[in-house]
């Protein structure tokens, strides 16, 4: 049986949150070393987390046709926030280019 869209959206939200927590932990414990490689790794974790969040938001929106559940609500909320963060970051980058 195929996994529901709401479940995929919820799973994406949990994976994205775990990636953000992992990036925070690496940043916290690696703060003493000012390594470019460490900063690149943290940035990559955050980029992957946001892209997983966007993918999850798409699945969560597709899952709106299904009966409401807590997974659906959490998935669409977390993924929506991550998508808004992505749009905000892109806006900040564009603003700094000018």
Describe the secondary structure blueprint for this structure.
Blueprint lengths: L4 H25 L6 H27 L7 H28 L1
Helix pairs in contact: 1-2, 1-3, 2-3
What's the quick description here?
The chain is mainly α. The chain has helices at 5-29, 36-62, 70-97. The chain has one domain (5-97).
Tags for this model:
mainly alpha, 82% helix, 98 residues
3D structure, described in words:
This protein has 98 residues and is an all-alpha fold. The protein has one domain (5-97). It has three helices and no strands. The longest helix has 28 residues, at 70-97. The N and C termini lie far apart (51 Å).
Mean pLDDT: 88
Percent strand equals: under 5%
> Which segments are poorly predicted (pLDDT under 50) over 5 or more consecutive residues?
none
Largest sheet: none
Global Rg: 16 Å
Inertia-based shape: globular
Helix share of residues?
A: over 70%
User: Whole-Å distance between the termini?
Assistant: 51 Å
Decide which structural class fits the backbone. Answer: mainly alpha
Order of helices and strands: HHH
Number of strands: 0
Q: Number of domains in the coordinates? A: 1
Number of helices: 3
């Amino acid at each position: 049986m195929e996994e529901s869209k709401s479940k995929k959206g919820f799973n994406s939200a949990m994976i994205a949150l775990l990636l953000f927590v992992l990036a925070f932990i690496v940043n916290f414990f690696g703060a003493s070393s000012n390594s470019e490689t460490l900063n690149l790794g943290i940035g990559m974790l955050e980029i992957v987390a946001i892209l997983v969040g966007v993918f999850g938001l798409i699945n969560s929106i597709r899952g709106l046709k299904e009966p409401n559940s807590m997974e659906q609500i959490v998935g669409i909320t977390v993924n929506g926030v991550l998508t808004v963060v992505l749009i905000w970051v892109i806006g900040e980058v564009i603003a700094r280019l000018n």
